């Protein structure tokens, strides 16, 4: 089993619905459970004292945790059922028996019957579900039967037997629940038409049925039959809230292996979902170290062979995201839509979660490896000649041209180095001119670094588009640094990355770690600059309030603030206290202006 400590495994768990599996030191499955939130549920086993001895013993034995993410809580319930039946874990008591979830069966016969069942028999009948409660099945069945009269008898309604008059209508006919096809009182064509409508309702296409119900409800209301109208309204609510599809169990799909792959520059992750009789019984993700120029097709081909051998898979059909050269006896399907496509998406989702989980674990266990990977990825994404171990980002802050300032933030190995952050007061620019301000601060920053023989960054990020980037480049040209330091601009609107002398911006994947670090730099520069700007504005406002008093200049205002700390305390100070600081003459003027 995994050598990663349990607390690290818990940290990396996702927050969505899914099924978790606990394993012991011998890699034997101990327990299967479902969760609305995997991280919270699994963590709860290790964060509290358990009342039951069985649970305490279970927790002591846990050495590894696996999980499968699914779209909904209902899917988690169904998958839990599948896995418990498949593996029969020692610590699972419930769901170990042969109890199955209910289905709706539309029998393969003339004048088909519709009934609930817990057994799926391959006799050509249509099965819909599974449902997580029999109540849902009965509600839907009652709903259908209240609108479409269907037979419930088990007679063989062949044309010959009906013509021979072998059957008589039963009580259901007299109650209005059946139209009497056994006596030939309803044609097979009319019956089949309503069966087609019923199939659409069960599949989730309620449009025509809802229109029918709403019309019926309106008619009943107009006739002041309000109780009956309310009953129809309840049925409409059930239909509108009803969901039938499950990715976890599908009777139309038999024994199938599903494979997907996601990869980056160094690693690939192949997920395997195994279906037996239409039910998911296994999920496994393999991490593969990539060699030079290995394609996803080559990696997936190798992984499929290895995984199928490891788990002794006998499935003859595979669902894959693209075609791969495999044994000619295997049937390869590349799903484009429907249930098969949903299975492929579920597999890919599990691969992505596994990849993120591994990154989170490495971040805790081996932070250097995590940093090296991110730096290598940034070098590749931004087409740099070396890894950007030292990055600097610039941002301007001014409001209507007042108190213009700029900020420079520094990241080393992808993390903020706050001791190296720098503020700049704009000195040579008057008015709100972002371009000229950017040119000034970039020139000042790197002129000083050169003079002090400090190390230069590998990457400069300018908060702004092509205009700000061009201004920064002028300063690098003036200092002879063009080409020696990589420089890019990031525009806020669509997060475009601009390169010098390239009019077409680069768009990084929104989930890219490179983009996240660039955004972090930009946001830090903005925060740092805004804080400095606010403090400067505040100080300027305080000074101007004191300097408006006759006889008080900048030095006097500074002396007063140094002593009293705030304008409020200066206002509250006595004449004697003020005299001690600025002398009798100025003290009288200050005291008089505030009183």
Automatic annotation (TrEMBL):
Residues 15-93 form the GIY-YIG domain. PROSITE patterns: GIY_YIG, UVRC. It comes from Maribacter algicola. HAMAP family: UvrC. The keyword DNA damage applies. The lineage of its organism: Bacteria, Pseudomonadati, Bacteroidota, Flavobacteriia, Flavobacteriales. Interacts with UvrB in an incision complex. Belongs to the UvrC family. Pfam families: GIY-YIG, HHH_5, UvrC_RNaseH, UvrC_RNaseH_dom. Keywords: Cytoplasm, DNA damage, DNA excision, DNA repair, Excision nuclease, SOS response. This is UvrABC system protein C. GO terms for biological process: nucleotide-excision repair; SOS response. It is found in: Cytoplasm. One of its GO terms (molecular function) is DNA binding. Coiled coil: none annotated.
């Amino acid at each position: 089993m995994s050598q990663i400590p349990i607390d690290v495994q818990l940290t990396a768990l996702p927050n969505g619905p899914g099924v978790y599996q606990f394993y012991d030191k011998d890699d034997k499955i101990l327990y299967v459970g479902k969760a609305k939130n995997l991280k919270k549920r699994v963590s709860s086993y290790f964060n509290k004292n358990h009342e039951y001895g069985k649970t305490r013993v279970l927790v002591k034995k846990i050495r590894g945790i696996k999980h499968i993410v699914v779209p909904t809580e209902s899917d988690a319930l169904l998958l839990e059922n599948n896995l418990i039946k498949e593996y029969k874990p020692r610590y699972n008591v419930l769901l170990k028996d042969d109890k199955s979830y209910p289905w709706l069966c539309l029998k393969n016969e003339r004048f088909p019957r519709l009934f609930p069942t817990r057994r799926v028999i391959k006799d050509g009948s249509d099965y819909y579900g599974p449902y997580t409660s029999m109540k849902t099945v009965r509600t839907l069945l009652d709903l259908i039967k209240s609108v479409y009269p269907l037979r419930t008898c088990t007679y063989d309604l062949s044309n010959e037997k009906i013509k021979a008059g072998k059957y008589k209508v039963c009580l259901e006919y007299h109650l209005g629940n059946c139209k009497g096809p056994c006596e030939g009182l309803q044609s097979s064509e009319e019956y089949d038409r309503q069966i087609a409508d019923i199939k659409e309702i069960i599949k989730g296409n309620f449009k025509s049925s809802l229109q029918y119900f709403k019309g019926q409800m309106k008619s009943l209301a107009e006739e002041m039959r309000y109780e009956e109208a309310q009953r129809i309204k309840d049925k409409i609510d059930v239909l509108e809230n009803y969901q039938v599809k499950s990715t976890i169990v599908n009777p139309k799909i038999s024994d199938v292996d599903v494979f997907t792959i996601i990869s980056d520059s160094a690693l690939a992750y192949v997920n395997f979902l195994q279906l037996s009789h239409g039910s998911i019984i296994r999920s496994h993700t393999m991490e593969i170290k990539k060699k030079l120029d290995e394609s996803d097709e080559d990696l997936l081909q190798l992984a499929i062979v290895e995984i199928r051998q490891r788990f002794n898979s006998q499935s003859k059909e595979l669902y894959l995201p693209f075609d791969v050269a495999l044994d000619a006896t295997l049937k390869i399907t590349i799903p484009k839509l429907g249930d098969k496509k949903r299975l492929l998406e579920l597999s890919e989702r599990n691969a992505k979660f596994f990849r993120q989980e591994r990154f989170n674990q490495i971040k805790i266990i081996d932070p250097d490896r995590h940093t090296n990977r991110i730096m290598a990825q940034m070098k590749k994404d931004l087409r740099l000649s070396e890894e950007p171990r030292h990055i600097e980002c610039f941002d301007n802050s001014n409001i209507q041209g007042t108190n213009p300032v700029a900020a420079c933030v520094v990241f080393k190995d992808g993390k903020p180095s706050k001791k190296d952050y720098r503020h700049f007061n704009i000195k040579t620019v008057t008015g709100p001119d972002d371009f000229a301000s950017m040119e000034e601060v970039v020139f000042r920053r790197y002129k000083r670094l050169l003079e002090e023989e400090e190390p230069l960054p590998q990457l400069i990020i300018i908060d702004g588009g092509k205009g700000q980037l061009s201004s920064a480049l002028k300063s690098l040209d003036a200092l002879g640094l063009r080409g020696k330091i990589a420089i890019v601009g990031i525009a806020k609107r669509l997060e475009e990355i601009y390169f010098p002398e390239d009019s077409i911006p680069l768009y990084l994947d929104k989930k890219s770690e490179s983009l996240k670090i660039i955004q972090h730099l930009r946001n830090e520069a903005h925060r740092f600059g805004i804080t400095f700007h606010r403090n400067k504005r505040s100080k300027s406002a305080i000074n101007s309030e004191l300097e408006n008093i006759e006889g008080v200049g900048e030095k006097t205002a500074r002396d007063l603030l140094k002593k009293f700390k705030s304008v409020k305390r200066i206002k509250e100070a006595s004449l004697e206290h003020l005299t001690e600081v600025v002398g009798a003459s100025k003290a009288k003027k200050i005291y008089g202006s505030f009183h």
